[in-house]
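Hello forum,

I keep getting stuck at the same step: I have a sequence, I want structure tokens, and every attempt I make locally crashes halfway through. Rather than fight my setup again tonight, could one of you with a working pipeline run this one for me? It's a single chain of 119 residues.
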Amino acid sequence: MNANPADDRPSLADLVRDLTGVGTQDDVRSAPLAPAAPSGAELALSDLISDDNGEIVFFNDSGFSTLSIETEAVVVSRGQTTTHRTAAGEDVSGFNYVTFENGLTLYFEEGLDLLLSNG
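Reply #2:
Ran it on my machine without issues. Output:
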């Protein structure tokens, strides 16, 4: 087992590639229906898997400026963490967060704009 859980996490680009089926930049250029623009990604909240505490962390190593999340869930709180470590061991101190009525919390780094849409 890896001592640092961060080493085992997929990148945001890998997650989008897995969910959209689009692999490389060349695939994006030649795709018949263009997926999310390179400046952002689109995901459905229902497709995401949380840790034991209902937390999901987005590390923006992809360079995306926006992340669109489609959901029916209502946001009950949002803000920025002070000091926090997730059940998976990720240090999200200083990250922005959004918590939904279903108990799920998304953490995301400064510089990544989170756009929520009704799904």
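The CA atoms of residues 99 and 105 lie 4 Å apart. If your local run keeps crashing, start a new thread with the error log.
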